[in-house]
Prior knowledge:
By secondary structure, the protein is an alpha/beta fold. The protein has helices at residues 40-45, 58-67, 78-88, 103-114, 162-166, 181-196, 208-223, 234-241, 246-256, 294-307, 312-326, 338-344, and strands at residues 24-27, 31-37, 53-55, 72-76, 93-96, 118-119, 131-137, 143-148, 170-174, 200-204, 229-233, 259-263, 269-273, 277-280. Helix 6 (181-196) links the parallel strand 9 and strand 10.
Amino acid sequence: MVALxxxxxxxxxxxxxxxNTPLGLAIGNAIVDVIxxxxxxxxxxxxxxxGGMALIDEPRAEAIYxxxxxxxxxxxxxxxxxxxxxxxxxxxxxxxxxxxxDELGRAFAHDIRAAGVAFSTPPAADxxxxxxCYVLVTPDGERTMNTYLxxxxxxxxxxxxxxxxxxxxxxxxxxxxWDPPHAKEAFxxxxxxxxxxxxxxxxxxxxxxxxxxxRAEFLELIKAGTVDLVFANERELISLYQxxxxxxxxxxxxxxxxxxxxxxSEKGCVVISKSDMVSVPAAPIRKMVDATGAGDLFAAGxxxxxxxxxxHKTAGQLGAIAAAEVIQHIGARPEVSLKELAQQSGLKx
Length: 349
C-alpha cells in the first residue's frame, strides 16, 4: 500500500521522526525479482502462460532457477516497486513487508533502503525463505512471472501501522495481497483505518490471472467503496468484466468506481471518473526492453500527481513518464531521478 500527501503531519516511528509531511507508505509482498531473458520456446517447454503470473512452490522455484539463463536480482514486488517510484519523485516513502533473515531478505532490505524508502519490518527468524519472482523477458519485452511467496505470506494485520496510515492521504493496495489469507486481513484493516481517518484508498488489480481468481471480491471492494481509486491495465479490465470489448468494460467500471485509471501500453491511459473520461498518451521511448514494473511505476507517478493536487491529465502524464523510463531497461526500478524527468518534461512537482 502506498500513502502520499501534502498536509502537515507527524511521523510515528523512530525511522521517520524527522518527517513533517504525511509519509508515503507501501504494504505489500516483499519479493526479490530474479530477471532473465528467454525465448518463447522456453516458456512453452516450461509450460508457462506468456504475460501472466503463476504462484509456485519452492521446488518449482528451484527448478525454474536451474533452467533459466543468467539473471539480475533486485528487490521487487508490486507495491514495493510503486513506493520506490514515489521516492524517485522526491516524496517521503516507507514500506512494510515480510522477508526472512536470509541472503535474499538482506538483499531486499538493502536495495529498498538504498532507493530512499524507509523499511523497518523485522525479518522472520524461521519459516519459509524470502519470496522471489522469476521474471522471464521475451524479445518483444513481455514478461512472464513465476512467484514463490515464501516469507511474504507471513504478513499479518499486526504489521499494519495504524498511525502511519491515518497520517497518509492515499493508501495504495496491491491485488496480489488477496492471495495470502493474513495479508487479506491486513488489506481490509488498512482500508478501514484510512477511511476512518478521512483518507483515500487505492487498489491495483495487479494481474489478469489474479482478477480471475478474485473477480467477485474485487468488484465488491470497488462497488462498496472500500477502494476509492482503481488501477488496471486493459487485460485486467477485460478480465474483471468478462468482455472482450474495451468500451463496454470501461463503461461498466465508470459505473462502479469513484475514480479509475486504465493503462493501455503504447496507447497511453484513460482516467475514468463519474463526470469524465480523459485520455493521456504514452510518453515516447527509444526502445522497449522490459515491461516489468510498467504498471507499478505508472501508479507511482499518478499517485504523486494526485496527492499534489494536479488534475487527472497531469497525473496521467507523470505516470506515463515513470512507466516510459522503466520499460527502457531491464528491471522494475527506475535508474534515473523521476523528479528530474518530470521537470525536464515541464511538469514541476
